[in-house]
Each structure stands twice: as C-alpha cells, then as structure tokens.
Amino acid sequence: MTPPAPALRIIDTHAHVFSMTMPLAEGAWHTPAAEADPPLFLRTLDEHGVESGILAGASISGTNNDYPLAACDRSPRLRTTVIVAPDCPLEVLQDMARRGAVGVRFQLRNVARVPDFASTEYRALLRHIADLGWHVQLHDDARRLPDYLPGLEAAGVNVVVDHFGRPDLEDGIGGEGFQRLLRSIAGGRTWVKLSSAFRLGSDALVLQAASTLLEHAGPERLMWGSDWPFAAFETQVTYTQVLNDLSTWVPDPVTRHRIAFDTPNLFFRPRHDQD
C-alpha cells in the first residue's frame, strides 16, 4: 500500500520586503507601489500556512541591506540574501551571517557590466561565501547563464538560480543557456527556484521548464518561491495564485512536499528550526 502523502509544509524561498520610504539605489528599476513590510509578509505567510521565508536581496536598494537584515533581526522565521560589493570585508559578512544572512545575490539581469568572477576581488568574495556556508543567488536571463556558471562552479560555491533560469520565448528550454543550467545541476552544486512564473510571459514555457527541471534535477535540486510582493505585478498576482501554481507544475503531492519543504529546509536550515 502506498503511504499517504505528508501534509504540505512550505518554506517560501523567494520574497522581498519593501518600504515606500526606504532609500533606493540610483537608477532603481522599480519603486515600491505600496508598503510590503516584514509584518505584512509574516501575516501573509500565516494566512497561507507557510512556515518561514527566505528574503532575496533587492537590487533596487543596491548594497544597502539594512531593511531585510532588520526584518531578520525581528523574526527568526526569516533569513535573507544580501547584495554586496566584491570587496566587502569578511567581518561585515560574518556580522550579516549572525543576523540571518545566508548568501549573496547577484542580480545581473539587464546589467550591462557583469562581474568578472576570475578577478582577485571576486575570487576573495567567493571564498568568503564558501567558508561561511553561504550560497550564490543568481538571477539573469538563461542565454547569459553560460557566462557565469563555469566561474561559479570552479569557485566551489553552491548556486541557486532564480525563476526557472529565465528561459525566453525565442530559445525556450532547448536554448544553450537553459541546457547549460541543466548540466550545472548535474554537477551537484546548483539548485533552481520554481518562482516568478508570471515574469516568463508564457504558461506553456513555464510548464515545459518545470517538467524538464523535474526530470533532470528532481526535487532534491528544486525549491519554490512566491516572489511576493510581485514587484511591477502587484495588482495582477496573488499569493494564493502562486501557491496554486506549484500544484499545477508538480501534481504529485510527495514530490511537491519535497520541493516546498524538504529541500529548502535542508539547504537553508531556517533559524526557527535551530532554536
């Protein structure tokens, strides 16, 4: 007899917290449309039965990580990635780790000048990331992933790629970028988030990407994230909708539980599980 599926436990591995009064970086691509503060995010998690959340460093704040770190200070249910300069001192990173930081985010989409991960500064930063037990959170279009993945693989850091790897409508899952992502996953240090499907522009492409990732990566290398509060899509997307999307992409309840909880729980070890 097949054992019953476990009750779905959920960790949201991709969300942001914004304030309409927080300082923004010069040239920020988005201005928060409404308050999306930590208390509101925690209430949203509670309303949907989600246990904890991993915040993603927000590029609109540049290297100012005060807001998400303060959110982690206030709640052991939250952790965050940060955006830092490549010469960020180790002691600063260590202090961020004590406050709940778990990785460094490289938000490279639409960024013309991309990092040289072979440079002295970036090699030092990647060593610090590895030594802290952190990960690199990578966001860019799939077609540019081959520019970064070899250097990150050579550095020996864990990599979490945002938003299905962002395959585009022209290249799809057959494009070299998405195929390079699959090879990186096979190498054992790369994970992918099933998140922000509404940004990909095609339900069919999302289903193809989800199915291919399940086939090649399995639930051990996949996690789910909401991308709350859905920046630039605030009036078009709801938390209920993105939760329901996971059931569409992953119909099997056991596999869905592994993606929604088991894999991120092992990867991030949320702080409330350590108390």
UniProtKB/TrEMBL annotation:
Gene3D superfamilies: Metal-dependent hydrolases. SUPFAM superfamilies: Metallo-dependent hydrolases. Keywords: Hydrolase. The keyword Hydrolase applies. The keyword Hydrolase applies. It comes from the Bacteria. InterPro entries: Amidohydro-rel (IPR006680), Aro_Compnd_Degr_Hydrolases (IPR052358), Metal_Hydrolase (IPR032466). Pfam families: Amidohydro_2. One of its GO terms (molecular function) is hydrolase activity. Residues 11-265 form the Amidohydrolase-related domain. This is Putative TIM-barrel fold metal-dependent hydrolase. It comes from Pigmentiphaga litoralis.
